[in-house]
Design brief:
With 564 residues, the chain is mainly beta. The strands form 6 sheets. It has a 12-stranded mixed beta sheet, with helices on one face. The protein has a 6-stranded antiparallel beta sheet with strand order 14-15-22-17-20-29, with no helix packed on it. Strands 13-23-16-21 form a 4-stranded antiparallel beta sheet, covered by helices on one side. Strand 10 and strand 11 form a beta hairpin. The longest helix has 19 residues. The radius of gyration is 31 Å and the shape is elongated. The termini are far apart.
Length: 564
């Protein structure tokens, strides 16, 4: 009896000790070798349950959509729960079993930060991960739920020899109670939760949704443009919307996303997404509501007028966000022809980084899209602007002021309402006078150029050098060209097919392909003296042939930064 009593007492004492020591607070710090930034993660332990959360101070003014992120791990129930907490009435979670399918390689014993550890390694997504696990503490804990199947406590994590997470301290904390909440929120799958977290961080501005862009001379012009309504202008070939936008902090990256498909038009067409500046007395909006004749113009040597294409003291041309080209009849003509080994696309998508044009997206913004066509069915198009944060704080950098000045745009957005083509380069150059202010630390020209003239010797199919002169001196020479047009064959069901096995959409072109967006190029003008300068764009445009002529759509804007 005496021995049994001793055993019972011993068991009771052991249980009490386990209960007393079952509450721990573990602090981890993460950093890159050679870097300055350090973040901290806290792991709270109660028995066989863990709560993993950030130990960094909360951001005082976070970006919209920032969630508090918690991970709960229950070894007894083989359960991992990931929770996004936005506020009491909006929380979401996903759950899974502790992952056991990783194949870790044991690499011996080492002493790390005073702990006896077993070293493990694994290759995940081409990254070498090294882990040091100790069983000295006689419990299990990890700040990374994916490695919870390993025995003991994670002491150190090393990725690719550079990114480090290591255990900084372990303390007992009797105040840790009820780690798991009674309500985790709305259940999602792991992929749904991951997508939800990202989507909430993105500031999304839907502009157009399945809008028709076609030739319709019966459309009446509005007297004014109200907010958040879609207007069809220039005989239906331009859609326009007025949007009220909030200024974004400088760290956001902004993308334009466009989807398009044919609603009857079989041809490849020039498209342009643009913003109408309203800072000066005259604007492109006046022409859309009245006529192209109200805009300033220049005259080439043959006497033709070119309306609204260059910057003047009273007028700013439209700023081009994206130049894109529709494919030959995608979707509408998919059933007319078949490919032996591939399926036609249902639509085309374009996504372009327009972050350098962020100064446009604040306050009263007029956003338009043009697709040149004379078809009554035309095209269907959607446009969305998406802004992605690259910092968790909503703060403006007033020491880094941006400059944006549109200089020229020969993409004839009002083509179907009388605006001339950019065909003056055969006899003339494009010239514009601009002023460089004091205090610029960086200045560049954002330039988009595509050549047109759709016969064998037209500028669409012949490389032509674009020469950029500053104050009469050649500064840059650039030849726009795309040699990868055959890549986009599945977007071009109505493209003409030739005897040699090629399709019209396969041929290389002057800076564009049917079904693609043309990327802007940048020319460094940093160091230009403050004051007045002249920019000249010279292109050796080809001669007309019969009733056909070549032309060039070029747009350019000065993008600069003031600062120290």
């Amino acid at each position: 009896m005496k021995n049994r009593h001793i055993i019972f007492v011993s068991i009771l004492i052991t249980c009490c000790m386990t209960t007393i020591s079952a509450q721990n607070r573990l602090l981890y710090q993460s950093y890159s070798i050679g870097g300055n930034d350090t973040s901290r993660t806290e792991v709270l332990r109660q028995g066989r349950q863990l709560k993993i959360l950030s130990a960094d101070p909360k951001v005082a003014n976070p970006v919209p959509g920032m969630a508090e992120h918690y991970t709960y791990l229950d070894y007894a129930k083989d359960s991992v729960i990931t929770q996004l907490f936005y506020h009491v009435d909006e929380k979401f979670f996903s759950s899974s079993s502790i992952r056991k399918d990783y194949e870790f390689k044991q690499e011996g014993k080492e002493k790390v930060n005073g702990y006896n550890c077993t070293k493990y390694s694994i290759i995940l997504f081409s990254n070498k991960i090294e882990l040091w696990i100790t069983e000295d503490l006689r419990f299990r804990a990890t700040p990374i739920a994916g490695f919870a199947s390993l025995p003991g406590v994670l002491v150190k994590y090393l990725r690719n020899g550079n990114a480090v997470m290591e255990l900084a301290s372990v303390t007992k904390d009797k105040d840790i109670q009820d780690l798991f909440p009674s309500d985790f929120g709305e259940r999602k799958s792991s992929s749904e939760l991951n997508q939800l977290e990202k989507e909430k961080l993105v500031i999304t501005t839907p502009v157009f949704e399945e809008e028709q862009i076609c030739f319709n001379p019966q459309i009446k012009k509005p007297y004014s443009i109200e907010y958040d309504s879609v207007y069809h202008l220039a005989n239906g070939t331009v859609i326009l919307k007025r949007v009220d936008m909030t200024r974004l902090p400088e760290h956001y990256r902004v993308f334009a996303e466009v989807t398009e498909y044919s609603n009857g038009d079989a041809y490849d067409r020039t498209g342009s997404v643009f913003v109408i500046p309203m800072a000066l007395r005259q604007s492109f909006l006046h022409a859309l509501l009245d006529s192209i004749q109200v805009l300033p113009y220049f005259t080439d040597k043959s006497g033709e007028h070119y309306q609204g294409m260059t910057y003047t003291d009273t007028y700013l041309p439209p700023i081009e966000l994206m130049r894109f080209f529709t494919p030959f009849g995608v979707r509408h003509y998919n059933e007319y022809r078949a490919l032996p080994d591939r399926a036609w696309a249902e639509q085309v998508s374009y996504k372009q980084d327009i972050s350098d044009l962020k100064p446009l997206f604040q306050g009263d913004v007029y956003i338009g899209v043009f697709i040149g066509n004379y078809d009554k069915g035309g095209h269907k198009l959607s446009l969305t602007l998406k802004a992605y944060p690259e910092d968790n704080r909503w703060e403006y950098d007033d020491d880094n002021v941006e400059m944006l000045l549109p200089l020229f745009n020969t993409c004839n957005v009002m083509e179907m309402a009388g605006q001339n083509y950019g065909k003056f380069f055969r006899t003339d150059s494009l010239k514009v006078v601009f002023y460089v202010p004091n205090g610029l630390k960086e200045l560049k020209l954002r330039y988009i150029a595509t050549g047109h003239g759709g016969w064998d010797t037209g500028d669409e199919f012949v490389p032509k050098a674009n020469t950029i002169l500053i104050d009469g001196v050649p500064r840059y020479i650039y030849t726009p060209w795309r040699g990868d047009c055959g890549t986009y064959r599945t977007s071009n069901p109505a493209s003409g097919n030739f005897w040699n096995g090629m399709s019209s959409s396969d041929y290389s072109r002057s800076g564009w392909c049917p079904g693609t967006a043309t990327q802007p190029v940048y020319f460094d003008l940093t160091g230009l003296e403050p004051g007045e300068h002249t920019m000249t764009i010279a292109i050796p445009q080809g001669e007309p042939e019969g009733g056909s002529f070549s032309s060039w759509c070029v747009s350019g804007a000065l993008v600069g930064t003031f600062g120290q």
